Amino acid sequence: MTNFLRLLKLCRPHLGAMLLGAFLATLTVLANVGLLAISGWFLAAMAAAGLAGTQMNYFTPAGVIRFLAIVRTASRYGERLVTHNATFLLLSEIRVSVFNTLSQLSNVDLAMSRSADLFNRMQNDVEALDKFYLNVLLPMIVALISVPIVVAIMAAYNSNVALICFTALLIVGVALPLILSKQLQQTANLETHYSATLRAELSDTLSGLRELAIYQATEQQIQQCRAASERYNQQLFVRHSAEAHSNGVSLLIVQLSMLGAIMIIAPLVYSGAMANVELAMLSLFVLASFETVLTLPNAFIQLPVALSAAKRIFDLEDKLHPETTSVQESLSVQPLGLEFKGLSYCYHSDTFALNNLSFAIEPLQKVAIVGQSGSGKSTLVNLLSGLWPQQNGEINLTSADKTIAINAISQQNRCELINIVAQQHHIFDGTIAENLRYAAPSATKQQMRTACQQTQLGDWLSELKLRLDTRLGTGGRSLSRGQSRRLALAQALLRAPAILVLDEPTEGLDNQSKHQVMDAILTSMGHCTVISITHDPALLANMDNVIWLEQGQIKAIATHQQLLAEQPEYVNLITRF
Amino acid sequence: MTTNPRPNRAQQTTLRAFLKTHSNHAGSLLKVSIALGTFNALLMIASAYLVARSIHLVMFEHANLATITPLLWPLAALILGRGILLGFSQRISAQAALKIKTTMRHALLEKLTLLGPSYIEQQGHGATLNTLHNGVEALHDYYANYLPSVAYSALIPLAILMVIFPTDWKAGLIFLFTAPLIPFFMILVGHKAEQLNQQRWQQLAVLGNYFFDRLQGLTQLKLFNATTRELKQIAKISDDFRHATLNVLKIAFLSSFALEFLATISVALVAVIIGFRLFFGTLDFSTGFVVLLLAPEFYLPLRQLGSHYHARLEGISAAADMLKILNEPLPAKDLENIQPNTQNSLNLPSIEQLNIDNLNFHYPQSNEGVNNINLTFAGTGLHAIVGQSGAGKSTLLDCLLGFHPQVISAITVNQQQLAASHIKQWQQHIAWIPQQPTLLFNSVKANLLLAKPDATLTQLETAAEQAGALEFINQLPEGFDTQIGEQGEGLSGGQKQRIALARAFLKQAPILILDEPTAHLDSQTEQQVQAAINHYAQQHLVVVIAHRLNTIAQAKQVIVMKDGAVIEQGSFKTLIDNQGALYDLVHARSKQHD
Q: Which residues on chain A are in Cβ contact (under 8 Å) with B512?
C-alpha cells in the first residue's frame, strides 16, 4: 500500500492530464452504456406506441442515440490522445526519478548486486511502470466513477436488479481478477525461473557448439533445451488456461446477471408495477453496464507487477544517504602528485584486495602498474575514482606547496582533476560530438577536431560524411575497439586533467590499432601525471617507473629496464602473444 | 522493445505465408479452437433469440414468469455452454501456440547445429539467442490470438448475416452494406496509419534505448561529472519525444477512430431504423430486438481484429529472423558424396603421427583463412602455435578439430587419410579447451561427465586434481554437485578454466588441443595449469595456441603463423638462435618505441 501511495505521489505533477484522461475515458464508457440502454428503450417504446397506435416524440430519443454515438467516438479518440500524453509525461517522470536515484548511489551499493543484473532488472521495472497509468490506474478510476453512477441509475428503476448487477460487477471486475492474479503470482516466479533456465540452456548450446561436438554431446544438449522449452511452455500454459477459465466464468456471470434481471422484472411487468418498456431497457442496461469494468481485470493482474517493480526502485531510493562529506578545499588544475599511505581494501571480510599499500607519485611523473589478476590494480583505480568509498589508509594529492587529502575536495572537483579511462569505457548512443561533449560540455567543434587529430582519429573523421555529427550506435557498435579507445583518449585530452589514469589502454587490440592508440597516449600524456595499468612492453618502455603489485602489496618499484634486466618473472608477466 | 525495422508489405506477405505453414504443426488444435469459438457465436445468436422472445412475450403478450420459464431454462443452458466453450476455445488456442512454439524452437536449434558455430558467430551470439528465446515467444500472441481473430472476423459476421436474412432481410441489408465499409475505411486510413503506428513503436524503442544506454554508462557519466546535465537531457528528450509522438498519434488513432465511428454509428443507425419500422408496425418487436442485440456482436470481431494489430506485427517481425535461419543453405550438404569410396571406420588405437598436408581454407565473404599449411606432429609432446591475432591460428585449429568437413582430407593420422565420414570418430580422439570454455548450466559433476558419461567419482577427482581444481571444487557449497550459473557465473575465470581442463583430462583423449587464455590468471593458477598441461603432454599430443612466453619456452615444437601461413617452425631455442620471426615477436615489443 505504501508503495502504491508513493507511486501515486510520483504521478502528482501530472494530475491534471491524468484526471482529464480519466474523465474522457469515463465519458466514453457511460456514453456507450447509455447508447445501448436508450436504444433498447427506444425500440420498445416505438413498438409499444406502434401497437397502441398512439403518437410519440421520437425525434428526441433518436437524436440522443445519434448524439451518444458521436460523443462515444469523439471522447474515445480524445481519451486515447490524452491518456497517452499522460503516460508519456509519467514515463519521463519515472525515468528521471530512477536515473536520479541511481546516479546518487555509490558504486558499492550498485556493484554489490551485480551491475548487469541490476541493469536488466531496472530495465524491466521501468518498462513495467511505464504503463502503470494506462493499464492500472486508469481502469481503476474509470470503474470507481462509473460503477456508482450506473448502479445508482439502475437502482432508481429497481433496487434488486441494481443489487444483482452490482454484485456481478464486483465479481467480474474485482473478485475474479484478484483470484486470478493470486494464481498468476504463484506461477510467475516459476515462469521467470524457467524462462531464465531456458535462456541459459540455449545460450550454452549456441556458445558451446564446438565443445559439444567434440564431446559428442550435441544431441544430449539439444534434448536438454527441448525439455527446458517444454517445461517453460507448460508453465506458460498454466497461466494461459487460468486466464481462459477466468474469461469463461466472466462471460457466464455477465449473461446470468442479465437473465436474473429478466426474471426479476418479468413478474413486475406482469403485475403492472413496472412499465413494459423498462424491461427491454434494463436488460440491455445490465448487459452494457459491464463495459465499466472491461479493463479492470487486467489492471488487477498488472497491479502486483507494477507494485513489485516500484518496490525495487523505491528500495534503491531508500538506500540514499544524505551527503555528509564536508568539503573544505578546492584545487585548480595544476601539476599534482599522489601519495598513498597504508591503503587497504576488502571486498569480503577476510580477503585483502589491497593490503597496507604505500607509495608516492611525483607531479608529472608517468607510472605504470603491473600485476597478475587479483593483485589489486583495479581496486586502486576504483578508489582513485571516488565512486568507491575508502576503507583504511589515506590518499593525498600533493602539489609543489601543499598536501591535501583527496576526500577533502568535492567529487566534482575530483572529477576535474583526475580523468579515468576505464577498460569498459562506455561510448554513448549518439554522435561523436555528443560523446565528446559528455567529457567537455563547452568544447568547440574546433577543439574537438584538434583532439581527434591528436588521438589519431583525424583520418577516420575526415572520411565520415557527417564528420563530428556521425552517430555511433548503441555502445559505440560502429567503432572498432581501437577507435573507441582513441575516442576515450580524445575525451581525456579535452578535459585536460591534472592526473590521467589509464586501465589497460592497449589490451585486446590488433597491432596496427595498438600503434595508433600508443601514439594517442603519448600525446595525451604531455602535461599531466599519468598512472597506467598495462602489460604492454611498448607502453612500459615509455613510463618513468613501474609499480609491480602482487596480492595487494608492492612486489617491486623500479624502471622497466631495471625490471627486465633483473627479474625473469617480470619478462614472463609482460610477454604475451 | 525491439528496434528491428518492420518488414514492408511484400515481406509481410511472405512472412505470413511462412507462419501459416508453421501453424500446420498444431493445425488441428487451432481448427478445433476456432470451431469452438464459432460455435460459441452460434450459441450467442440462439440466446439472443431466446432473450428477445422472452422479453417480447412479457412486454406485449402479457406473459408472466411461468410462461417464459420454458424459454429461460434453455437460455441458462446456452449461457453455461457459452462460458465453457469460450474457456475451452482460448485454452486450446494457447495449447496450439505452445505446440507451434516448441516445434519452431526445436527446428531452429537443429538447423543452427547443422549450420555450425561459424554461422552463429557471424550473426552474433546475442541476436541468435534472442531469436531462439524471445523471438519464438513473440509468436504466441500471433497464433493464440491474432490468427483465431482473423477467422472470427470472417465467420461470425457471416453467421449473423445468415441468421438475420431469413428473419428480416431489410435489417440484413443494413448489416451487409455497413460491414464492408469497415475494412474499406481501415484500408484507406490504415495504410497511412500503419506506417505511423510503426513509427510510434520505433520512436518508443529509440527513447527506451537512449535512456537505458545512459543508465548503462552511468559510471562513465559520474566520472565525467555529467549526471546532473544528463538528468536535464533525459527530461528534455522525453518531452521532445512526447510532442513528436503525440503528433504521430493524432493521425495513427484516426484509423481506430474511423473504425469505432462506423461501428457505433451503424449500431445507432440500425436502432433508429428498426425503431421506425416497429413504430409503423412493419416489424415485430421480437425480431427488432434480436437485431439490436446482434448489431454490436456483428462489428465486434472486426474491432477485435484491430486490437491484435500489435501481436500481428510482433509475430511477423520475429518470423523474419526465423525464416532467415531456416532458409540458410547448408554449406556442404553433399559431403558424403565427395569421397564415396573411403572406408567407413577409423581405426586409431594410438596416435603415432599427425600430418597436415596442403591445407587451404577460407571463410566465405572474408579474407580470413589459412593457406598451404603443411605440418607434422609427433604422437606426444607440447606443440605451440604463436602469431598475432588474425594470423589464422584459430582457423587452423578449427580445421584440425573437424569443424570444416570440406578440408578434413588434408589431415592424415598414422598414414590414414581422414574423410568427412570419419569426423565423429575423429573427434572422439580429441579433447579441446577454447579460450573461453563453455560450462553448461548444470552441476560441476554433469559438466565433467560430458567428457566421459560413465566416469567414477574417483576418476572425477583424479581429473580435477590434475587440473588443480579439486581443492576449490571441494570448497564449493555442494562440492561436485554445486550448480554452475549461466555462463559459469559464480566462478572466477581461472576456476572455469580449470574445470574445463579437468573435463579434458577426464576424457583421456590422445590429443589435447587448447587455446591458452590471454587474460592474466593469478600467478599460482597459471603455474598449476601450466604444470598439469606439461605433465599431460608427456604421454599425449598437445597442441596449444600459446600466448605466454613460458608456454612456448617449454614446447617441443613452436609454429609461427602470419597471414594464414606457417612462416617458421622448430624448437624454441633454434628459432630464437636463428633470430627470425619468433625472435622478433619476443623482442620486438620491448624495442618498439625506444
A: none
**Contact of A419 with A499, CB cutoff 8 Å:** yes
The DSSP code for B217 is T
In a shared domain, residues B224 and B75: no
Query: Are B398 and B542 contained in the same domain?
Result: yes
Question: Which residues of chain A are within 8 Å of residue B185 when distances are taken between CB atoms?
Answer: none
- ipTM score over 0.85, yes or no: no
Instruction: For residue A117, give the C-alpha cell.
Output: 543484473
How far apart CA A380 and CA A368 sit, in angstroms, is 12
d(CA A289, CA A164): 12
Our CA angle for B141, B147, B152, nearest 5°, is: 125
The answer to the question of residue B316 being in a domain is yes
CA distance B197 to chain A (A): 13
pLDDT tens-digit series, residues A70-110: 898 899 899 988 998 888 888 888 888 888 888 777 766 66
Residues 6+ apart with CB under 8 A from B545: B384, B385, B386, B393, B394, B397, B435, B514, B515, B516
Q: What percent of chain A has pLDDT over 90?
A: 15
Greater pLDDT, A425 or B208: A425
User: Do A418 and A287 share a structural domain?
Assistant: no
Looking at the structure, tell me whether residues A297 and A350 fall in a common domain: no
pLDDT the model gives residue B514: 87
Lowest-pLDDT range of A175-179, B61-65, B342-346, B438-442: B342-346
Domain count of the fold of chain A: 2
Which pLDDT score is estimated for A289? 92
The answer to whether the Cβ–Cβ distance between A85 and B246 falls below 8 Å is yes
Domain that holds residue B223: 169-282
Chain A residue closest to B452 (CA)? A215
CA separation for the pair B587, B574 (Å, rounded): 15
Chain-chain contact of B246 with A577 (C-beta, under 8 angstroms): no
Total number of domains in chain B: 3
Decide if A426 and B548 are in contact by the 8 Å CB cutoff.
no
**Measured distance CA(B216)–CA(A120) in Å, rounded:** 10
CA A135 – CA A554 distance, rounded (Å): 59
List the one residue out of B286, B65, B76, B52 whose CA is nearest residue A268: B65
Pairwise CA distance, residues A42 & A67, whole Å: 14
B154 and B247, same domain (yes or no): no
Looking at A318, A351, A373, the residue that finishes a domain is: A318
Share of chain B above pLDDT 70, in %: 87
Check CB contact under 8 Å for A256 and B1.
no
Q: How far is CA B562 from CA A472, B386, B554, B556, B568, in A?
A: 32, 9, 21, 20, 9
More confident residue, B161 or B225: B161
B74 part of contact set with chain A, CB < 8 Å: no
Query: Which of the 8 DSSP states describes residue A293?
Result: G
Q: What is the pLDDT of residues A158-203, one digit of tens each?
A: 999 999 999 999 999 999 988 888 888 888 778 878 888 888 888 8
**Can you give the length of chain B in residues?**
594
Task: Please report the pLDDT score of residue B574 as a whole number.
Answer: 86
Residues B508 and B527 in one domain: yes
pLDDT value of residue B72:
92
Kindly list the distances between the CA atom of residue B431 and the CA atoms of A11, B166, B552, in Å, as whole numbers in the listed order.
Answer: 60, 78, 20
Contact A207, B125 (CB under 8 A): yes
Contact between residue B479 and residue B460 where contact means Cβ atoms under 8 Å apart: no
What is d(CA A297, CA B365) in angstroms, rounded to the nearest whole number?
Answer: 54
Work out the number of other CB atoms within 10 angstroms of the CB of residue A349.
Answer: 5
CATH number, position A467: 3.40.50.300
Which amino acid is located at A464 in the chain?
L
User: Nearest by CB to A237, which of B47, B98, B238?
Assistant: B98
- Residue that is written with C-alpha cell 613452436 in the block: B558
Report pLDDT for B195: 67
**Residue A547: CB partners within 8 Å, gap ≥ 6?**
A359, A367, A368, A369, A370, A554, A556, A557
List the single residue in B with minimal CA-CA distance to A419.
B223
